[in-house]
Design a protein that fits this description.
Number of domains: 2
Distance between the termini: 25 Å
Number of helices: 9
Largest sheet: none
InterPro entries: AhpD-like, AhpD_core, CMD-like
Helix content: 55-70%
Number of strands: 0
CATH class of the largest domain: Mainly Alpha
Protein name: Carboxymuconolactone decarboxylase family protein
CATH topology of the largest domain: AhpD-like
GO molecular function, one term: peroxiredoxin activity
Order of helices and strands: HHHHHHHHH
C-alpha cells in the first residue's frame, strides 16, 4: 500500500486522467507511481516528456541496456515496483530472464558482456557514491561507448534514481510484471 493514498480519479486534472485511463487499458490497471506523480501534474507531464525522449529511437542508449541498468538502480534503491517494471521492460527488449535475475550478482556472473559490466559499474557508482566516482570509470566506459552514449547513459541513470527513490520512499506497490523481488536486496 502506498504511503500516500491516491485521489479519486475525478480529482486529477483531465490530462492526467487521460494518461491514467490509457495506462489502465495498456496494463489492466493504473500503476501506483502514476497516481502518486499525478498529484503533481506539472512534474508528471515533465516526467512523461523525459520518458518520451529516453524512449525515442534516436536516443543514444538502447532500451535493453537502459532496462538492464535500471534493474540494478532499482535494487540499490529498494524500489520493488521499479525492479518489477524494468525486468519486464528488459525481457520485452529481448533481454533474457537469466540475466534479469542475475543483475545483483553481475560482477561474478559470466552472463554479462564487457559493455554491460561497464554500464552496470557506472550505474552503481552514480547511484551509490557520485561524489567519489572512480576517475578511471569514464575511460572504461569509452572502451564501449561514445561520449554521447555516456552522457545519455548518465542522464538515464539520474532519471532512474529519481524515479526509484520517489517510488520507494512513497511505497509504490509492485504490479507483478516480472517477479524478481527476491533479487532486489542490496548485495
Amino acid at each position: 500500500m502506498s504511503r500516500i493514498p491516491s485521489k479519486s480519479l475525478n480529482e486529477y486534472p483531465w490530462y492526467v486522467r487521460f494518461f491514467l485511463k490509457r495506462q489502465r487499458r495498456v496494463y489492466g490497471e493504473i500503476l501506483a507511481p502514476s497516481l502518486l506523480w499525478g498529484r503533481l501534474p506539472g512534474a508528471f507531464v515533465g516526467m512523461l516528456g523525459l520518458l518520451g525522449i529516453f524512449n525515442s529511437k534516436r536516443y543514444p542508449v538502447d532500451g535493453r541496456l537502459r532496462s538492464l541498468v535500471s534493474i540494478r538502480i532499482a535494487q540499490l534503491n529498494g524500489c520493488h515496483f521499479c525492479v518489477d517494471l524494468n525486468a519486464y521492460n528488459f525481457l520485452k527488449a529481448r533481454g533474457d530472464e537469466a540475466r534479469a535475475a542475475a543483475v545483483a550478482d553481475w560482477r561474478d556472473s559470466a552472463l554479462f558482456d564487457d559493455a554491460e559490466r561497464a554500464a552496470l559499474d557506472w550505474a552503481e557508482q552514480v547511484t551509490e557514491r557520485c561524489a567519489a566516482i572512480d576517475e578511471t570509470a569514464p575511460g572504461r566506459l569509452r572502451e564501449h561507448f561514445s561520449d554521447d552514449e555516456i552522457t545519455g547513459l548518465t542522464a538515464w541513470i539520474g532519471f532512474q534514481n529519481m524515479s526509484a527513490k520517489f517510488n520507494a520512499a512513497l511505497g509504490a506497490e509492485q504490479h507483478g510484471f516480472c517477479d524478481l523481488r527476491q533479487q532486489s536486496e542490496d548485495r
